[in-house]
Design a protein that fits this description.
single chain, mainly alpha, 1 helix
């Protein structure tokens, strides 16, 4: 009977030792998983900040493109007006040249 209890105690101690080893292993794995999680969270936060920065940059570039388009449209109108004025001045110069020749 004593031998059976001793054997049972020995098996229980072996089982306890294995469980403690497994617990230490699981604790290490949990710690590693938490480290990986923290790394992923930092990467996610960094990417979120980069996304906000890029969104602002895209918005700035879109506004610049609209402004450039408006400026081009205005310059095209000014060019057309100046072209009309140049043509009118050339006609007047020709007319004055003809009047000068007649005088």
């Amino acid at each position: 009977m004593v031998l059976g209890v001793e054997r049972n105690l020995e098996l229980t101690e072996q089982s306890r030792s294995r469980l403690e080893d497994e617990l230490r292993q699981l604790s290490r794995e949990r710690s590693d998983a938490l480290d990986q999680l923290n790394t992923v969270i930092r990467q996610k936060n960094s990417l979120a900040e980069e996304s906000v920065r890029l969104r602002r940059e895209v918005e700035r570039l879109a506004n610049a493109a609209v402004q450039t388009s408006n400026d081009k449209e205005n310059l095209t109108k000014v060019k057309a007006e100046l072209s009309v004025q140049v043509n009118a001045a050339e006609r007047e110069n020709r007319h004055l040249g003809e009047v000068t020749v007649l005088c």
